[in-house]
Each structure stands twice: as structure tokens, then as C-alpha cells.
Amino acid sequence: MNEVDITTHPDRRLAAVAHSGPYDQIGPAYDTLSTLAEARNLVPEVKSMIGIFYDDPDSTPAAELRSHAAFEVGPETPIDAPLEQIELHGGKVAVYRLKGPYSGLKAVYHYLYGTWLPDSGEEPQDAPSYEIYRNMPGNTAPEDLITDICIPLA
Prior knowledge:
Layout: E1 4-9, E2 12-20, H1 27-39, E3 48-53, E4 66-73, E5 84-88, E6 91-99, H2 105-120, E7 129-133, E8 146-152
């Protein structure tokens, strides 16, 4: 596994679409988010694409998993329904950079929560994990995708 970096992230203001169900089926929520962003001319305001994941898929039934597909936007960007505004609080974060297909995400989470976190001396914050997508699957080969998996720390 790659190194885990501990860094400080800023607060982020997100325009988001909720998703319920298996995390690997969040794609349609991103499609809705993209369609709304284009229709509302928000694309120039988008700073990054982020996924927020609230539940442990190993202990929560797949149908009950909760997540948000989101774009980071500036403080002046209007966020109107059906988009939701989410404030992603910054602070100390453990970051693992995955290079490769999204199918590798589950193994990274198992490593982070099962091995790295217990051995690190760090405590997780009572906040959801999130992913920052550094490039897009529509124009990037799966083996070249870059995803930062982020765990907020106390």
C-alpha cells in the first residue's frame, strides 16, 4: 500500500445530490449533479468533484448506505433545490492517494480502517470519509484515475 499523508484540509462548500444504496452505484447521482450544474451554468464554478460516504459497507445493508455526489463550489455560487448545500469541515485529515480503477477503493478502505488507523496512534473524527477525484473517468483510462481517500482525524 502507498503512504498515508496527514495534512490539513480547508472547509469546503459543496453542491450535492444524495444517493442511497451500494456505493459503487453512485454514478447516476453524479450524472444528475453534472446535468444540473450544466443547466445552471455552474460548471465554471466547480473546483473539484467529491464523494462523501457516511456508512460502513461491511456493517450496513447495501440498500441503506448513504452518500453524496458533490462538486466543490465557491461561497457565492447559488445552490438551489434539488441540489443540497453541504459544508465539509476542514481540519486534520489522513489522505491515501489511489492511482488506478475505482474497483481498488474497497481494499484501500479496509487497509485504512483495519490496519493503518489502529497502528497510527490517530483517532478518527466523528465525520464521514470522503474522496476527492483528481481526474474524471470520462476522459481518463481506469489505470490512470487518481483518487484521494480522506479520513477526518481528531
